Amino acid sequence: MTLKATWYENDNRFIPGHWQPAVLVDLALSRGIDSHRLLRGTGLFHEDLQAGKARLCAQQFLQLIDNSERLLAAADTRFLFGQRLLPGYYGAASHALQHAADLSQALDIVCRYRALISPLLSPRVLLDEQNVYVYWLDTCGAGAQQRFLVESAMTALLAMSRWLAGAPLPWKVSIAQTRPRQVEQYWVNLGEDVRFDAPVDLLSLPREYLHQPWPAAAPTAGQAAQQQSMQQLQELGFDASLLDHLYRHLLANLRHQPQLENVALAFGMSPSTLKRKLHRHGTHFQEQLDLARKHMALYLYQIKGQSNEEVAAYLQFHDSTNLRRSFKRWTGLAPSALRQLWPCD
Amino acid sequence: MTTLLKLHRLKLVVLLLATNLALLLHLAAGHIKPMSEWVWLDILGEGGSTLLCLTWLGLVLKSRPAGRVTSFLAMGLGLVFFSWWVDTLDEFIRLPDSIVWDHWMESAPMPFGLLLLTLGIYHWHREQLAISAQMEKRERLFREHRLFDSLTPLNTAEYLRQHLDQALCQARSAQQPLSLVILDLDNFSRINHLHGHAEGDRVLQALSQLLVLNLRHQDLLCRLAGDRFVVMLPHTGERQAQQLAEDLRLSVEHFAHKARAHGERLQLRASVACVMALQDDAESLLQRLNQALAHAKPALYARSA
């Protein structure tokens, strides 16, 4: 049984060159970078981007990011890129964002039309009683570029909500790396409330800001733009990447101890095909499974407030000692240290 | 490359003719040595020097604006190159002993070349002093071009950090106070949104000039990140620093920047804060400064519903 692929992989050419890639190209050109050197190795020409004809695959976009970082050689490239990303000029999806009624709707749009708005990074939104949380998943094997992508996505969401809400929102920022030397870039671009050495890259905000009305809201125009975006997704034939689908599948099936074989079956391919595809994305099955388990464990500990035994039972660990060991491997922290350093608020 | 040829055509033509002439004269008067007589060490030493000298000449012409100092340097290097070139030719072409002009060709240009080079370097030194005076308030103690800001004619946070380490030591040993002022534009992203990022860049460039004008000669201005600037004030206590911060804030508020597109005036506002160094190192001092700014910023957060 083979299904028509309903996802994209890192060699599908579908990202319009004059959308997100153009934001980065324009930034680099405004800093005096030569367009030929900027596009070297991407197989692209500036004229094609300008003509609106070029379609990039994820690999080409990642190469472009790598070139820009190297040529600009500045600590602020990812933040400047992020500030210009959203709502952006990506056709109907950008219109829908511009006319969003509030943050809740804007997040919904960013998630639903992620293949159009954020093709390299899939945003995920979580809610508990107090807060809304946003984190991102690598969709196409970004490798070394993942930090660039995540930090620019954070900057983009902060900058967009600040612009559309008419004032900055008190986002809290967690960064999953040690405090970098250029910490001032984080202060200026992500606000004073940045914490480093976090178990996962995360934004959080008190829930009451979700439904605070935004001044530029235009419900009818927004609805129409969403319809158009939906149509675009249908024409593309997918709304998310392979890794994105895999993550969701794993997350939903963690209680059933997912294995390469049965997951491949669910995706309508042989285990060796899935293995090969994951390899092409710079990852492997166990890594993806560990990622899903890490996120689920964090969710159960932090948001559900569950005990070691409950989490171990959910994730099908024999005992909590094994879980603690694995958790430490995934996050660098023991569950007890996690509760101390990152208390649920 | 084309501008290089256009600016220095005469110099390069003369050099080319002279090298060719020397080669032709040698070929006409002498005969080529067989390979068995070649002395590889001499060829490597003299030929290598000749090539290096040509590289220096190229780099000097390429990197310096045309002018008097550049001409001195180019002529000096040109003569040195010529003299080494003739020296190298000797290794391949044997001239009869009766000929003496080759010694002249080899030895005479060298002292003149070195004299001109010395003159050029001396004036280069004078020129550098003049440029350094222009860099006043934007650079102190040391220069590192890799730490230049890519947008404004200022240094980056990394330069500030390295400089601060030295300045804090000096201040401590001289028992002098040292203060920092931080300045951050209010609602800068609005300018980017309404007038475009290129206009935002121009605002930052203009602002860096404006802030320099308001400083004393011993102060140092750097761009921390984005629209945030830091001034280091040696020999300055907290009170005086506050006064200076207030001066900067007012100058930003009264600054009538005009957008390029329609000449519209952009109203700018800034928040300022200052701290005096106590027992801090550079890192903790910057952290404290940033916290002071966060307190000084007007409560901007949108009200929750």
Features of this protein?
heterodimer, A: 345 residues, alpha+beta, Arc Repressor Mutant, subunit A, 3 domains, two-stranded antiparallel ribbon, B: 305 residues, Alpha-Beta Plaits, 2 domains, two-stranded antiparallel sheet, 11 helices
Structure description:
Chain A is of the alpha+beta class and 345 residues long. Chain A folds into 3 domains: 11-73, no CATH class; 75-236, no CATH class; 242-341, Arc Repressor Mutant, subunit A (Orthogonal Bundle). Chain A is built from 18 helices and 7 strands. Chain A is globular, with a radius of gyration of 20 Å. The termini of chain A are far apart. Chain B has 305 residues and is an alpha+beta fold. Chain B has helices spanning 2-7, 9-29, 40-63, 68-92, 101-107, 109-134, 157-173, 188-195, 197-213, 238-253, 282-296, and strands at residues 31-32, 93-94, 178-185, 220-225, 228-234, 257-258, 265-266, 270-276. In chain B, the strands form 3 sheets. Chain B has a 4-stranded antiparallel beta sheet, sandwiched between helices. In chain B, strands 1-2 form a two-stranded antiparallel sheet. In chain B, strands 6-7 form a two-stranded antiparallel ribbon. The longest helix of chain B is centred in the middle third of the chain and has 26 residues, at 109-134. The N and C termini of chain B lie far apart (63 Å). Chain A binds chain B through residues 27, 30-31, 72, 74-76, 79-80, 83-84, 159, 162-163, 165-170, 181-182, 184-185, 187-189, 192, 206, 208-209, 211-213, and chain B through 150-151, 156-158, 184, 189-190, 192-193, 197-198, 201, 224-228, 286, 290-291, 294, 300-305.
